[in-house]
Structure formats: structure tokens, C-alpha cells
Amino acid sequence: MRKTYIILAGSAFFLLSACSSQESTAEENAEEVLQQLQEEEYQQITDQYFSAALQDAYPADELRLSWEANRGSTFEEINNLEATADDDETAVSGEVIFDDARMEVTMDWNEEEKLESLQIARPMEDLALPDDAVEEDITIEADDGYPLNGKLTLPDEEGGPYPAVVLVHGSGPNDMDETIFSYKPFQDIAYGLAEEGIAVLRYDKRTYTHGEKMVEELGAALTVKEETVDDAVEAARMLQADDRIQTDQVYINGHSLGGMLAPRIDDEADTAGMILLAGSPRSLWEILYNQQLDLASDNLSEEAREQLQEQADAFKELAESFQDMSPEEAMEYDIGGMSGYYLQEMDQYDVGQIALDSNKPLLILQGEADFQVTVENDFAAWEDIFANESQATLKTYPDLNHNFILSQGENKGTIAEYNIPGHVDEQVIKDISDWIHEQAE
């Protein structure tokens, strides 16, 4: 027994020594990479230090984009560089300090002293309410028993009346900031527009606050009307009745699913116009179908790709068949947590035609790096609808993702990139505010 203990202790000492050497080498390599980043030697870094897999996922141009987006003005020091060895990989983390910013860097080195992962990001910093702006708590209750917490952000306490927007969420349960991983796009928009003299109303989504109750009371009969439309209509009417707001200058600003539903909301609330952020005039099931096909990447085997194609085609066939069913029949199907009736009800409305027939001004914006709602399929559909119409202004943004935040990093093009802290691009907020002010002229 004693002999076994001595062998184990000796082995542990050997492993500890090996780890120390491994950690030291990884720290040295990490410091060299950071120095080369300062010197903008992006291609040299990818050629010398990136594994083959990381080179494919994170080419030199993307590395440059991430570094330039996060660095500050003047480099000061590399700080708190620490390595931790674990089996065949060593993780190194540290900070790069600039005169006006701090950047966090994390690296994973393999046994061949190649990088398997490199993450560059500024720490998440919550935006502060603009100096002159004020924010007040509000409650929206479109239906009895479903009160929702919200906030009204005003450019200042004494001024006005102001133009205003209602922010309408994308799919899924969302809080009033539309928080997703490291993002809070609705807070970004509210504070940014307030600085431009525009009031913003945002609120928790009904399924966020009352999800269990809605399932209990509505079950498979739940549709976007109860989930989203009714509350957005009530929010618009609240603004239209507020003396601090220009009642004829209230706009629906819908994101993703909210952008798809904005024409339906406007049809009831009779707002001044619509701002559609990554919305689509296509059916929701069509978007879901394309998203399934996008999973069939070249990294999968031919057999796996064929299986995904079969599953996607089966989903498409089922979704199309809902229109030939009664509501009760459609309710019998569960599609990823929503009933077939949810999709059936949405398909009763041609939102593109509703938007066109509204004769209201529309601002339609799309990130070119959006992999959920795409330029090729969805923005192009808006372009077709408004090809000969002047009521719509359409614009795309290179390198912005579904949340209108810079798409960057080795996980670009996946949900994982949303873990990199970021804020809605300033140009997007400026374009929204300029457009709103133009409508009021």
C-alpha cells in the first residue's frame, strides 16, 4: 500500500512539472500572438498559430474585424495573463489594456502549440441612461389577468411632445430588453433613440411573464395574437393617448417575428408607420424550413445531410397541409413547442400585402451577416413587394447579425457568437431616428 502511494505521489509530481512547462509555453505563445495583433499581423498569426480547423472558422480577415472592433485607441499593457493546463489543452486568459478600453482575450492551445480557439471581446458593459433622458415604469394590460411590466424612455422630463416607437419582440419569451445571451438590443435602441429626441416604449413579452398561465388557459389554441399582437396594439394606443407624445407620430418597431407581425399590429393600431428589423413577409414555416436546410453543412456526412433534407422536407409538407385542416386538427400537432394551429393562424395573413396596402411609410433594415432571417430569402422578398413603391426605404448592413450587432469571432454565423458582448450598431439607430424625423417634417 505504501509503495503504491509513493508511485502515485511521484507520478503526480511528474505531471505537475509537465503542466508547468506546458503552461509556460502557452503563456509565451499567447503573449506573442497579442503582440502580433498590436502590429496587425493577422495573416501571420493565422498561418503560424491557428490549427487547420480554426483557420477555416476564423480567417485572417475575420480576425482583423474582431480585433479592430474591440481594441481601444492607445495600447498600454497586457495584464493578468494566466494559463491552466487540462489534459491535452491549455487555456490562457488575460486582458489587453488600452487608454480608453479593456479587452478580454481567451485562447485554447493544443499539444502541438496551435490555437484551437481564440476569443476577443470587451467585457459586457450595460449602457447608462442618457444624461437628459428619463425613464418611468409602466404597465400594459391588453387582456385582464395579463399585466406586463414595461418602461417608457423619454428624451427629457419637461420637453415634448416627442415622436415615439413601440418595440415588438422576436420569437420566444423575451424580457423588455429582448435579452439574448450577452445582448440587450431593445435597451440599446431605447437609449439610442432617446438621445435623438424619440420616446420608446418597451415591455416584457406576455409569454415571458405569463407563459405557464397561457399554456394552461390556451394550450394549443395559443397564437401570435395573444402572444404578441394584442399587447403591441395596446402599447401603441397608450402612446397615442399620452400628452407627452406626438400622437400622430407613433411607430411600430418590430424585430424578427415582431417585424413580421408589424403590419398586423399597425392594421389595428393605425400607427404612423413601421420599422422592420430583420422581419420577413414570408411564412414562418418557410423560414424554419430554410433554417433546417442551413444545418446541412459541408462538415456533415452525405448520409447526415440526406437525413436532414428528408426531415426538412417532411416538415415543409406538414406545414403546407395545415391550411387544409380545421383549427382543431391543426392543434393536434406539436411543432417544436408550438401547435400546428399557431402556424395555420399566421398563414391567414399576407403581411407583405397588408404592409403594401397600408400606404404607410416603412423602414426595412437587414443585417447581411444574419443567418436566421436572410438577405437572400427575406430581404429580397421585401424588395420584390416594394420594387415600384416609394413608401418603403430598404437598407442592409455588412457584418451585422440578426440583432444588428457586429458579427464576429470564430463562431460567426452561429448562435454562439451572441456570447460575445456587443451593442446595436450606432448607424442603425441613427438611420432609424433620421427616418422618423423625416416623416414628421
From TrEMBL:
The keyword Signal applies. Residues 1-26 form the signal peptide. The keyword Aminoacyl-tRNA synthetase does not apply. Residues 165-408 form the AB hydrolase-1 domain. Keywords: Coiled coil, Hydrolase, Signal. Residues 290-325 form a coiled coil. GO terms for molecular function: hydrolase activity. It comes from the Bacteria. InterPro entries: AB_hydrolase_1 (IPR000073), AB_hydrolase_Est10 (IPR053145), AB_hydrolase_fold (IPR029058), DUF3887 (IPR024981), Pept_S9_AS (IPR002471). Residues 30-118 form the DUF3887 domain. PANTHER family: ESTERASE ESTD. This is Alpha/beta fold hydrolase. The lineage of its organism: Bacteria, Bacillati, Bacillota, Bacilli, Bacillales.
